[in-house]
Write a structure and sequence with these properties.
By secondary structure, the protein is α/β, with parallel strands linked by helices. It has 18 helices and 24 strands. Strands 9, 10, 11, 12, 13, 14, 15, 16, 17, 18 and 19 form an 11-stranded mixed beta sheet that branches. An 8-stranded parallel β-barrel has the order 1-2-3-4-5-6-7-8, surrounded by 5 helices. Strands 20-21-24-22-23 form a 5-stranded antiparallel beta sheet, covered by helices on one side. Strand 5 (274-279), helix 10 and strand 6 form a beta-alpha-beta unit. The chain binds beta-D-galactopyranose (GAL). Beta-D-galactopyranose is lined by residues 181-182, 278, 302, 304, 334, 340, 342, 372, 382, 385. Beta-D-galactopyranose binds at residues 181-182, 278, 302, 304, 334, 340, 342, 372, 382, 385.
Length: 698
């Protein structure tokens, strides 16, 4: 009989092989974001031909082609042009626009116009207009005014999407579809129709009111429901169980709204036409993006900096979150041509920054970048937003930089064919946990994004590639998985994470982990709940901090602030890595960080928000103890490295985000693809970009 040790080793080898094979399998399939017959990298602009006389289209398309743009998204708000009166459709103009784009080798993505219903529609069917949380029905003339739960609105949305698909579902120059626009920012209608659907949804979920009352602990404050009709839509602070279910219903409402259009299009469109939606990055969390992304061919998102300048961590987190939704490459279907019009300061990105931003997207897994928008309408709410062409129809200064970048994309596109981002480290993102913490922050200073970013920054500096994924997906491909604050750890999630540990993974949990179950109720066990057993330790008490307190131990010395948890070991083989110094009395001398081997892996619990230096030390320890290796090698601070891996080996994108020139010594001789020469060292000015291939390294 094989010894336990040998069995473990065999298992480890088999699992590593399986990981390797699944990565190889992913690498051997063309990503859906790279369209057959088209360049692997695309650049485009969002264009609104309905706003311009037809004579002008030819000039615009010729200019786009000259700027090396190869894709345009159209029709997205043009409902009143496509259905000028109820049931009368006019697609002839759209057909002409598509044909003219084709003549200029510009592929078309059609947007469904459902974010902007025509005036005749909202006039005839006022019930389709959303009712806000103050009970006010919104008026016509803006956008996103449709009610997601309106049966009538869905019927009308289905009809326009279906008519479009009947007409263009086989069009050779239509490569795909974008549904709606940013899904109405997830806004809901606070009317009886929506409330009834919510109650029905709850009935489907809980079956009996007894079950609902028990899971929501409605005995508290006399909240007990005797009838499904009594259940309100929560406005403001409410029962946490009800609030979480409402938020899930919001996801359900938008997912079914989306599916209604997918069904309308899929029935008539060729399978080669993709269907996507324009999502909005990490920061937008009105619904659960994992659910929304499921039926889409791939994820596309709108990448705007707003005020200030691009922060590679903040923007990288959004790219990586969007890429993690389906664990597949993405499109940036809208991005900022210099400036926006909606921020507190609509400054322009610096010269060179727009190009760097486009390459940053490619490095993080984008296969398309499109500017919103080509040319602004002469009137309308967004008339002074950044564009590529001015109101006079002539290029703005930025167009030259965009054209240069588009040319670079075209020149290097083959290098990026079939390449994916492959990471050894994952951060976990869970919408339920994010909502639940934000509803009960306990200290206004608890900023989940800042905490995620501190882990991301420290870990990315070392690993140079990070995935951000749902806690519920297969995790075995990662050497290290970090959950900065996974509040909800129901039993099945705990079992899934424990299996990852058994298989050799290292799971790091941050503060607030495992306090709650899937009903947003407190677990009747100490944190991290069902993972306390593998940890061999638990949280004794949590504290919202008034000020920072010292911590020290084998990870170094430093401070925790905002939040601290007093930990205790329950098994003798759990190790204490950090202890609190003199603090509030309760924490003095107590454990702040625990770790323990479990199965073939390791589980670590970090009970406080660490300062930057300590976080870096913790990241060094986490990566070292998990055998995480950098994908490229050492680079100076301010240089961001990204890697995409394909059948022909890796390709690296290096960008200097710091002021001033920086020199990077490469780990070996590489080919600088933008310069077409072999190099061992490169110099990058601020916003400078290098694309490097290293065929020697698989
Ligand atoms: C996006 C939206 C576009 C446009 C843009 C302006 O969020 O999808 O239609 O409004 O913002 O920055």
């Amino acid at each position: 009989m094989l010894s336990v040790r040998v069995q473990g080793w065999v298992c480890f080898v088999v699992l590593s092989l399986l990981n390797f094979l699944s990565i190889q399998e992913a690498l051997s399939q063309a990503p859906p974001t790279q369209l057959p017959g088209h360049n692997a990298l695309l650049m485009g602009a969002d264009w609104y031909p309905e706003q311009w006389p037809e004579e002008r289209w030819e000039i615009d398309l010729r200019m786009m082609e000259a700027a090396h743009l190869d894709v345009t998204r159209i029709a997205e708000f043009a409902w009143s042009r496509m259905e000028p009166s109820e049931g009368h459709f006019d697609f002839a103009w759209l057909e002409r626009a598509i044909r003219q784009a084709e003549k200029h080798h510009i592929a078309v993505v059609l947007g469904t116009p459902t974010a902007a219903p025509p005036a005749w529609l909202t006039e005839r069917y006022p019930e389709v207009l959303r009712v806000d949380s103050n009970g006010q029905r919104v008026t016509h003339g803006n956008r996103a005014q449709g009610s997601v739960t309106s049966v009538k609105y869905r019927e009308l949305c289905h009809r326009i999407a279906e008519e479009m698909a009947k007409r263009f579902g086989h069009d050779p120059n239509v490569v795909g579809w974008q549904l709606d626009n940013e899904y109405g920012y997830g806004m809901m209608s606070y009317n009886d129709e929506g409330r009834r659907q919510f109650q029905e949804w709850l009935k489907g979920k809980y079956k009996t009111l007894d079950a609902l009352n028990a899971h929501w602990t409605t005995a508290y404050w006399s909240q007990t429901y005797d009838n499904w009709d009594e259940i309100p839509i929560p406005v403001g602070e409410h029962n946490p169980g009800l609030m979480l279910d409402w938020q899930r219903f919001v996801t359900f409402a938008w997912a079914t709204y989306q599916q209604n259009q997918i069904d309308a299009i899929r029935a008539h469109a060729e399978p080669r036409q993709f269907i996507t939606g324009n999502l909005m990055g990490y920061g937008f969390a009105a619904f659960d993006h994992y659910v929304m992304a499921r039926p889409l061919t791939f994820v596309a998102w709108d990448d705007y900096v707003g005020a200030g300048h691009l922060d590679p961590d903040t923007n990288g987190i959004s790219h990586d979150t969007m890429r993690g939704l389906k664990r597949e490459n993405i499109w940036v279907i809208e991005t900022q041509p210099g400036s926006v019009n909606w921020s507190n300061l609509n400054n322009s990105l610096d010269k060179g920054e727009v190009r760097a931003m486009a390459w940053h997207g490619i490095g993080h897994g984008a296969d398309e970048v499109s500017y919103w928008q080509w040319r602004s309408a002469l009137n309308g709410q967004e008339e002074i937003h950044g564009t590529l062409v001015g109101p006079d129809g002539q290029p703005v200064p930025l167009l030259e930089e965009v054209a240069q970048t588009a040319k670079e994309f075209a020149d290097l596109q083959e290098t990026f064919r079939d390449t994916l981002v492959v990471s050894q480290v994952a951060l976990l993102n869970d919408y339920d946990s994010r909502w639940a913490i934000d509803w009960q922050k306990h200290t206004e200073k608890y900023d989940q994004f800042a905490i995620l970013k501190s882990y991301y920054h420290a870990l990315r500096k070392i690993a140079q590639s990070i995935d951000i994924v749902s806690p519920d997906v297969a995790l075995d491909q990662y050497k290290l998985v970090v959950a900065p604050d996974l509040y909800l750890i129901p039993k099945d999630r705990a079992e899934h994470l424990a299996a990852y540990l058994q298989n050799g993974g290292h799971l790091v949990l941050g503060p607030r982990s495992g306090l709650k179950d899937e009903f947003n109720a407190l677990l009747p066990i100490r944190q991290p709940g069902y993972l306390a057993e593998p940890l061999g330790g638990q949280v004794e008490q949590f504290y919202a901090l008034e000020k920072a307190f010292p911590v020290s131990g084998s990870l170094g010395d430093g401070e925790v602030s905002v939040w601290a948890e007093r930990l205790k070991t329950t098994l003798s083989d759990a190790e204490v890595l950090l202890r609190y110094g003199r603090s509030n009395g309760w924490l003095d001398g107590q454990a702040a960080v625990l770790t323990r081997r479990y199965g073939r892996g390791r589980i670590t619990y970090i009970g406080g928000v660490l300062d930057d230096k300590l976080m870096q030390a913790a990241a060094e320890w986490m990566t070292k103890s998990s055998q995480v290796t950098p994908v490229f090698g050492s680079v100076p601070d301010g240089i961001e490295v990204s890697r995409r891996l394909g059948p022909n080996g890796p390709v690296f994108v290096l960008i200097n985000w710091r002021a001033g020139k920086q020199t990077v010594t490469l780990p070996g001789s590489m080919k600088s693809l933008l310069e077409q020469k072999e190099v061992t060292q490169i110099e990058l000015p601020q916003y400078g970009v290098a694309v490097l291939s290293d065929r020697a390294k698989p």
